[in-house]
Each structure stands twice: as C-alpha cells, then as structure tokens.
Fold Lipoprotein.
Amino acid sequence: MGKTIGNRFGVPLTAAVAIAALAGCSADSGDQERSVAQVLTAAYEKTSAASAAKAELTVSMPESMMGGAGELELSGVMGWNPSVVDMSMSYPSGEKVRTRWVGDISYVDAGAAAAKEMDGKRWMKVDYAALAEKQADERLLSQMTGGMEAVDQDPAKQLAVLLDSPDVQHVGEEKIDGVPAQCYRGAVTLQQMIDSGESAKVLGEKKHDALVSAMKEARIKGYETEIWLDENDLPVKMDLTMRTADGEVGLVGVFTEYGIDAEVKAPPADETYDLMELLGGLEKQSGDRLEKPAEDAP
C-alpha cells in the first residue's frame, strides 16, 4: 500500500511535510562578553517571543523518502507560537503548490486537476496524528512523510536544541545578505538531548519531552546545526542536517521580518478533502474486492 500511496499523493504529501523544518564561517570574533550558552539562551528567548518570520527554505531529501532525492524550495511565512505555515513550494520538476499548516494539520493545494476528480475540492487535509496512529509501520510512515511530519523545525526550537551539543562553539562573523552575523555550530544526538537537560531548561519539560518523542517517531538520530545571529540575537540563517534512519535530510533557512503577522486559517471545508477518509475508502474498496467470492464457472 505504501507504494500506491506514494505514487498517488507524492507531490502534495511531500509538500505538506517538508514544512509542518540548513555553510561556512570566518575566523573567530564577535561577542566576547557572554558565553556561548548565554548567547544561545538569549537568542532562544528573543526568537520565541517574536513568534513568526518570513522564511526562504531549501529542503533536501534522500532517495528513500517520498518524492525521491532532490531539493524543494519554499517561500512564505512561518510561525511557532502557535505553529503555522503559509508557503509556496517549488519542485525540481518546476511544479509549484501552496501549503498551509495549522498545528498538526496541513493543507495542500493539489490544484485544479485534483479538484476535477474530487468534486471541486482542491485542498488536501493531512492530519499527522491520525496518520501516525493509522500507519503502524514507523519506517513506512517516515518514508511517506519525509521523516519530518512530527518535528517542528522552527529556529527558536533549534536554538534550544543546540544548547545540548557537547561541542557547540562560536565560529566567527559572516555577512548574510549584507547583514553582519555571528555563526554558532554544534552537533547533538538524540541521547545527548535526553541526557543533557540544557534544552529542557529553556523549552520546559513538556515541550522538551514532546520534541524527543517526535524525533523518535520520525526516526531522527540527531542534528548537525549552524546558525547565524544578527546584532539583536535573532537568527538570519540556519543550516540544519537531520540524521535519520532513512538518510540525511537537509534544511537551509533564511529568516527576515521577525514578528510579522502569521495568522493562517484552514481552507473552507467545502474546498477540502481529508486524506485519512480517502485512504479509508480505498482500503474498504480493496477489502471488498478480496472478500468478494469468485463466480461459479459455467
């Protein structure tokens, strides 16, 4: 069934998951009065308070994940308090779609062609909690969703995660789109996130435990992160590599206009079809065919 789902829903589902979450620096210089931990903590607090920003994202995935190897380009608004996304996505093929994310539910504009087949409904709804509950095979689920469906890769959360890295360091200063920025780099495993407790201090136990659970579900083993902070301790660029059981997933993000209004609403119900309901219908049809007795031979 996984192959069938991949063939039918590959483009819109990959668009949905490449969201509901990243280059070198010069010699060491910059903030000499604060420790790395103090800088990252301050950056987390300011970024978390900003709640949203404009983002330009490039997502790269291995062949084993839905959509295959290649890069996806996303542009639009993302927020993390609460978690929302409204972005356009471009595929290597040149195809473009729009995706909205509200909490754990994403909506993908599958286009006019899909609307003709779905009684005028062009938006596909994907409830990741329901999808995870239905799909018991974690490996297949990870491949279907690009291993990212339950992991919120917002810059605030990644700043917190970087605090768990045993080798995090200030690398130096570099200009990002003409803006002087300080680069910080580190790597962290899932087990180090559990053992360290530093990210839990800023995230709070509830958010920290939810993040760890989401990483386990998405089969993420750890992160390699570089992040560039401007003079206000806000990330202007993030280069993130997620080491997963299915290969490495890369996410490069450039962020501007922190604090922008990020009110994102679900599409109208009469323009939306539910992927879970559709899959349930396909399964029922498949079961009916299997259970139908063969006609007696003449």
